[in-house]
Structure formats: C-alpha cells, structure tokens
Protein: Phage protein
Amino acid sequence: MVKMPTRNSTFIPLKGGIDLSTTPLAKAPGFALAAVNVDALASGGYARTLGYDRFDGRPSPSRNRKFTSIDVGDAPDAAHPAFTAITWAGGSGAYLSRSGHFINAVIIEGGITAGTILDIAGVGYIAQQDGREYSKTKAENIANQAIAADWRRSQIGPVPGVGPVRGVIAVRGAVFAVRDIDVNTGGLFMASEAGWQQITSFGWVLTVTNVANISNGDVTLTRTGDNKVFRCVAQLAADGKSGVVVVSPGDAPAVGNVLTGLGDATCTVASVDAITIKAGGSYQAAVHNFFGGTGQRAAYVASGVQRAFELREDGWLIPLHAQPDATKDKPLAIAIHSGHLFLGYEGGQYQHSAPGNPHTWSALLGAESFSIGDEITAMLPTTGGVLVIASARRVFGLYGSSSKDWEQRALSESVGIAAGTGQSLFLPVGLSDRGLVRLDRVQEFGDFALNQLDPDHHFKAMIDGMDWAFSTQIAELNQYRLFSRGLTHLAVTILADGSPMATTFQYPSAVAGVWRYTEQGEQLFFCLSGSEGVVFTIDKESRSFDGAAISWRVRLPFAHSGSPGVKKTWLTALVEQTSPNQAPIQVKWSIDHMIDAHFTSQKVHSIVSEDPSAAWDQVAIWNQTQWNQFYWSGSYGYTGAPIDLSGTSASISILMGGASSSDPNFTITGVTLDYFARRARRG
Structure:
C-alpha cells in the first residue's frame, strides 16, 4: 500500500512590522517585507490603517452613517443622481440609492410613514410602509452607510480664505483654523454646526500709564464718566506702573480715558490699537490651564510672523508681550513645562514666562531666557520633568523647576532632531541625520542618553530614501507618525521596551500640515496639498480616506516552516482576523526566493506602490501566480474558507491586500499554512 504523505501545518503570528535588513532565512515570518496602509499593533497583528474625514464642525460623516430605506413598491426605477433632493409634506431628505422596491435616503427633516407622497426631481413615489433604518442584507447596509457618509461629506466645506491652512487649534470644545484672507491679513475661523465661521473682531491693545494696584492677568475695568465695563487682561512692566492692557472684542476705550477697578486700581489709556492677525506663518499651539479655574483653559500659539497669543474657547485672542519690540517678538516654537510658558525664537534663543502666569515676562518676576546657539527645531516636555530643546545638530535638556534652579545640559553634541519631527511619547523621539533617535532615561543619574530607535536598521532604508516634513503621534496606538513630502509616510508603533514596529501609509496627496490635541479625546487634524482649505481629521470609525478607498497590503517574508532544506507542496492558507464583519481580501503568493543562491523571480510592477517615492516597496513584489478572493466569516476567529495554494518549493511568501471605502475596519492576526513535506532539496 502506498503511504500517503502527512499533512503538516504551521501557524505564523503576524507581528513586528517591516524588516528590510535581516537575511531571508533569519527573518521572523511574522514580520513584513512591505506593509502599506496597515498599523502594527502592540498586541499583535496588522490593522487596516485609520481612515479620515473632512471637518468643519458639522456632524462627522463616519459617525453619522444613518439612512432610511423607503418601500415604494413597484414604482418605476427612475434614474436619480446621488444626493438629489427628496421632499414631502413636512419633511425633506437626500436620495442615496435604489435597491429593488426600496429607495435609500438621508432624512434631513421630518419622517416617513406609510402613505407619504415623495417627490424626487418631479417623479412621485408613495411609501408603502414606515421608513426603516436598515437594508435587506448586510452588504447593502454597509454600501448605503457609505453613501450616507458621502452625503455628509458633501456638506462640509473648506476654511474660507486663500492659500494653505496655516494652523488648526483646539481648546476645550472649540476648534479654530487660521488661513490668510489676503496677502497682508490672516483670518481666524471657528468650527460650528454651520461650518467655519469667521471671527471678525479680536479686541484691542491699550498702552497704559499711571497704573496703580493692577495685577497681571484677568481684570475687569470700568471707564470713569459713563461706567462702561471692559473685560481685560493686564501685562505690566516689573514696577507695575506701565504696560499694556488687552481688551476683549467690542467697544474700545479712547486715548485719555481713565479706567478703574476694584479697590484703588486705576490706569490711563495712552494709545489704542486693534488686534489683527498677519498673513503667513506656521502655527503651533500648546494647551494648558495656568490658573486652575473652570473655563480658564486656553491655547498658547506661536506662528513666526507675530507675537505669540493666548486663544480662549470663545475666540478671544490675547497677544503676549514677551519682548518689548514687536518686530523681534515673533516666536517659532512653543511649549509648556513646569508651570511656565516657553517660547523659542530665531537664532536659538528661548525664554519663559513667570511661573504660573503666561502674562508676566519680566525677569524680576521670574521670567528668564536661554540660548542653544543653533536654530531651534524642537521643544519637547518629557514625563521625567526635563524640557528637551533641540537643533538639527545638537540636543539639550533644561533641568530644574524654576529660575532658581534651572540648568541647561548638553545631551548630544553631534546628533540633533530635524525640524517638524520631534514628538514626546513616553520617551522623546525625533529624526536625525543618522535615522530615528530616542532619548532614554538613565535611571541612576536621572539623565538621558540618545539612542537609535531602530538599531537593527529594519526600516532605515525607508527613512534614508524620503524627504520628511512633519510628525505626530497617536497615543491610543502608542504610535509615532512621520510624514514625507511625497505620498508615502511612516507609522512606528513603539513597544514598552522602546523597540519599534514600522509600517507605511499612503494618502492621495502630500500632507501640508498636521496638528494634534487631547481636548475632546485625541484629536488629529491635517491638511492635504490639492485640497486647498479643507481640514481633515483622523477617526477610528472612518472606513475610508474621506470617501476614497483604503488600498492596503502586507507582504510576508518567505516562510519555510522550520525546514529551509525540505521541498513542500503547499496546500492552503487560512487567515485569522478579529472583526465580526465581512472584509474582502486578495491573496497572492510566490515560491522559493533562492535557487543557487540567486534571486530569480520576475518582479511584477503592476501591483507595486502608486507612489514613485516608495520604490523600495518593489523589492517585496515577486513572481506572479494567481489571485484568489474570499470573504471572512461573520464571527471572530478563523475564516471559514481556506485559500487553495499551488506549487512545490522549500519556502513560500504570502501577499495579502484589498481595497474598500465601505468595509468596517479589521485586524489580521495570523496565517496558517498547510503543506505536504516532500523531500530534501537536491544540489
């Protein structure tokens, strides 16, 4: 009797991110040769990358996918463009699609009951029953949810103005955007349920003299003569006898007016200037509550073209007079550390406010200035109580808690952090000319040591091959994100021991700016080139790139099941995932990466990255075989239908991918390969 070969299985847990440096036989099979539009999770697996939506304060498209299915019976299936208006007595909506007897629509006003007569572009329909908020099948439900989200997107507009969005600022429940109105003037806009609304008045700056008994900070002053009350913020000289008072929007005091406050507080108005925003600049903000009271949390903003300012939730903008000369008081960097507001300037100078009061900048009252001798590229507060100040060539740490004990120490005299790339996670991270670096605390001395984030160079080839511009972080994923000037970007998940797992993500156009806040949970805003004035926000509920499909793929290294010298007949691949929803996936495979120690497989260029800057990805795409497509089952765990493989070889590499703008998010956690062991490789 002929003995049947034994069926063998090997499970490949997916974890580790991209590894382009380890030799083929030593490479862990759960790592990836290419990982595009997926995130490496600390708990294991590759999740499809987070989608994003446009934003202007209106309801989020991805969180408002509700639609109504209306049974119109045997009514003719007339062709209506998506989003055509639907009207009926007492209500209105927008047409989405037609599914047999059912019209799917977004209800804007009113409701649908049996007998309701609908009008769509002059065509009449009669509802046969009450509207329902679901489709006949799960697939139709997902598709109609996506169209409903697209309708929401069609209602969201850009920030008014010209040129790029200069900055996005979030404080408490309010979100603001800065964009130029013309070549000389900048505009501030607040997000609302009606979209971006321009703030047309910012208030007034008064130069005051004859000041007595007024303290720096919020103060209510009354004009003598007519008892007109003004809401103010005082910023006075060290002797308290002169300075400026910022008045909230509304009527302005006149030159010569005498203003009084509680007790014997008084001052005389010497000049009045309207507050304006200048065109240009690049806005950075730090949010803090210096005073501890309810409603006193504010954003502190630097732009490089004007004085820094405090921005409150109601849109009141308060210029901060950190230096007497306005032409020199144009900070580029900003940070909050140890109860002080820090500002960084051209030439490497940085200074801080008095402790606990961002309106006081006198050295006699606790303010102080420093210099690092190079242009500042990053100011990063750390969890260890040290402020990291970096240039492109050096890194410094400011130790201490106040002007009484500050000590600036050099942490690195030869390696710095590139502008826009510094982030403070549980450890500071940034890009240097030697690759990504991190600052590790040396516990014995409370000091820091600068180390490579990727000492094994798993993804250094990608770092070296692109021009990097911006960075951010996603705390929920413990992820550092680095944005290039092209279309391909880097996502690095940092484990508790500091080791990295890198993947890539690709947006339809280059990122033009990115801003992160933690005011209402984690909020990450960004802009894209070619979408002038549009602000986007990452949302874990989003299933698309603002309505466009997320095209993803993971290329696994060649797996040999522990026996690189044994030929195997490959039978099936079974993919494990953790979503209860359907998600289509395409699988491609190639066999035997080595024959006589040479790479002989033919590259397939039709499936490499769309981004020319990601040419490194081509090395991961090898000889063409065949494509299979299947749907994951509707329950957690293994898929119900293994993918049939073919071919005999010592090793096999799997490429998984897909594209969708509507499928719910998912995570791939492992692959099980079944095979027959045949014989030892000859020759």
Observations:
- The domain at 320-453 is CATH 2.40.128 (Lipocalin).
